[in-house]
Amino acid sequence: MPTPILQVRDVHRSYGRGQTRFEALKGVSFDVAEGESIAIIGKSGSGKSTLMHLLALLDAPDAGSIALEGVDTAGLRGTRLNRTRNKTFGFVFQQFFLTGANSVLENVILPLKIAGVGGKERRRRGLAALEQLDLADKAKNKAVNLSGGQKQRVVIARALVNDPRIIFADEPTGNLDTATGAVVEDILFTLNREHGITLIVVTHDEDLAARCDRRIVIRDGRIVEITGSAVAA
Ligand code: ADP
Ligand code: MG
Predict the structure, then answer these.
(1) What pLDDT is recorded for position 212?
(2) What stretches of 115-195 show up as alpha helix (H) in DSSP?
(3) N or C: which terminus of the chain has fewer CB atoms within 10 Å of its end residue's CB?
(4) Among 33-42, 43-52, 168-177, 193-202, whose mean pLDDT is lowest?
(5) Cα of 125 to ligand 2 centre, how many Å?
(6) Whose CA is nearest to atom 19 of ligand 1?
């Protein structure tokens, strides 16, 4: 068996202190195989976003461990942590997080800027990513002027530009109409299948969850069910 890309062991995460302390994750364990697609599902407030933030190393657990490619991530801090995140992960969140006043291309190449890639190479890779998402003609447009579906495709282009191993998507179709959501969904699964990018998606959408190799059901901070089977890497 190859090393899982993520190994999550007995992870806990609380918010607040004393009387107001709330345990959002109460001991969660599972592995993610490289190249698989996983849906994290459950009611609002069950701990899905908390879990995704931990997996994406945007937040750290209070107890338990998360290993990335077999290496414990607890020791990662500062520049090394940022570099690991920037190099290994792509993010597709419901709220886009685009800078409206900047051009589409500028938004897409931001991760390359952070990685210290030179201007010419940034432009080349940014345009290639936009090409893949069928948005090359919008490169110079201000992000604010795009439709919701176009914005989400820009977000996917930005997630791709660093050639990530894992794409994290939190309700990626949540702000889109059904038809546009389906297009965005198809793009994510194409990236998963054809480029072998591991896909971890938080969703309320049952059809989207059904398309994933596995579904992890969270209730009140615990995993209550895992369905499906991991793909052989
Ligand atoms: P989900 O994404 O499944 O809706 P979350 O992971 O966002 O759930 O939240 C899980 C629980 O933790 C909720 O009860 C939420 O209110 C609480 N929570 C989330 N973030 C914070 C925070 N920063 N401070 C306090 N409580 C929080
Ligand atoms: Mg959430």
Answers:
(1) 97
(2) 119-132, 148-160, 178-195
(3) N
(4) 168-177
(5) 31
(6) 50
